[in-house]
Design brief:
Chain lengths: 203, 84
């Protein structure tokens, strides 16, 4: 594992701010997460009606991927693996599904909600949007696990499973959200190390 | 019948999260699937649940939906004839 890999770009969606490579690209005072995510979508001038059908976790991951892949689409062969992680899995949507089936007399599970009762659906939404047929995984940890993600992405690149890896932490639990996503590649200025990842996530 | 058609358009926009679509953009005879509103298979299931929940109509065979959900006009006619 001698090859050096780099964090080509990174973004954060956190505390009503969206940053890309440490530059603020959007800030908002939306009253709730759903509105905030919708406002980001509009700010980025996206045209993708399916966005509105997604749950908040998928929307968060989708928007992060949009920021990271918007320029990348032009100059790569799109061999991009996806490795995401979070703490709450799909708990927010799981709760909504539970509510829909709570009443045994009025039992109306919503298919549109049910399909999002897995966190890796967020990976699927990104793959569909960017036509990726690549390696992917979604892991659940108590906190952002820089060591695991760094090692996992490195192995994927070392084994030639992908040209680059879209990694990150996308967590949604109620109105609490935390998005940190980054693209690992053979090109870039920031070294892909546990220390750098920890630093970027925390600062 | 006009009231029911308007109600259906509102429900479809709300239940299927068609945030970029307004009521005026849905013609009574526009196809709901394919080239029309572009609804997908999950939307079809959601419409089946809506028929049951809001109008007491149970579609036992999901394939029936293909004809019933052809357009707002067809849907409204079917609901008017079968609602409980």
């Amino acid at each position: 594992m001698d090859t050096q890999y780099y964090i080509k770009s990174y973004c954060k969606i956190k505390e009503a701010h969206v940053t890309f490579n440490n530059n603020i690209v959007f800030e908002d005072d939306a009253k709730d997460l759903k509105s905030f995510l919708k406002n980001i979508y509009k700010h980025l001038a996206l045209k993708y009606a399916k966005f509105f059908k997604m749950d908040n976790l998928s929307k968060l991951a989708f928007l992060g991927a949009e920021l990271l892949l918007q320029d990348d689409e032009k100059d790569t062969d799109r061999d991009i693996a996806i490795v995401l992680s979070n703490r709450a899995s799909s708990l927010e949507t799981d709760r909504k599904h539970q509510e829909a089936i709570q009443d045994k007399e009025k039992y109306y599970p919503s298919p549109a909600i049910f399909v999002y009762t897995l966190p890796n659906i967020a990976v699927g939404e990104i793959s569909i949007r960017h036509q990726l047929k690549s390696e992917n995984a979604f892991f659940v940890f108590d906190t952002f696990n820089a060591e695991f993600l760094c090692n996992y992405a490195t192995v994927l690149l070392e084994k030639n499973k992908a040209e680059s890896v879209l990694c990150g932490w996308v967590d949604v639990d109620g109105e609490n959200y935390d998005g940190f996503m980054y693209l690992v590649s053979r090109k870039g200025k920031i070294k892909h190390t546990i220390k750098e990842l920890t630093n970027l996530y925390q600062n | 019948m006009e009231e029911l058609k308007l109600e259906l358009k509102n429900k479809i926009i709300e239940n299927l999260n068609l945030e970029d679509v307004s009521i005026d953009e849905i013609g009574d005879n526009d196809p709901l699937f394919g080239d029309g509103l572009g609804l997908d298979s999950i939307d079809a299931l959601e419409l089946i649940v809506m028929l049951d929940k809001d109008y007491g109509i149970k579609l036992l065979d999901p394939k029936e939906g293909k004809k019933i959900f052809e357009s707002i006009e067809v849907m409204a006619t079917y609901i008017a004839e079968h609602r409980k």
